[in-house]
Design goal:
- This protein has one domain (21-71).
- It has two helices and no strands.
- It has helices spanning 18-46, 54-71.
- Helix 1 (18-46) packs across helix 2.
- The longest helix has 29 residues, at 18-46.
């Protein structure tokens, strides 16, 4: 039996494919207006700017949603 815990194989990260980047861009563009709205409402409600701006929020949502599409 092989023990992979001590001599794990080296994995190489491949650059994202064009199809993935196209889907990512579409999802990012779709989530940006809603992320801007929720950021503005949170800023108004708390009275201060939050640490996570609208672009960072939309980027985070796109990073969550896009892999889900490709894993389905």
């Amino acid at each position: 039996m092989t023990d992979y815990t001590s001599n794990a194989p080296v994995t190489r990260h491949k650059p994202p494919k064009t199809e993935f980047m196209i889907y990512f861009a579409i999802i990012f563009a779709a989530t940006l207006p809603l992320a801007t709205l929720t950021w503005a409402l949170a800023a108004i409600r708390t009275g201060s700017m939050t640490d996570k701006g609208p672009i960072k929020r939309a980027w985070s949502q796109a990073r969550i949603i896009t892999p889900m599409i490709f894993s389905a």
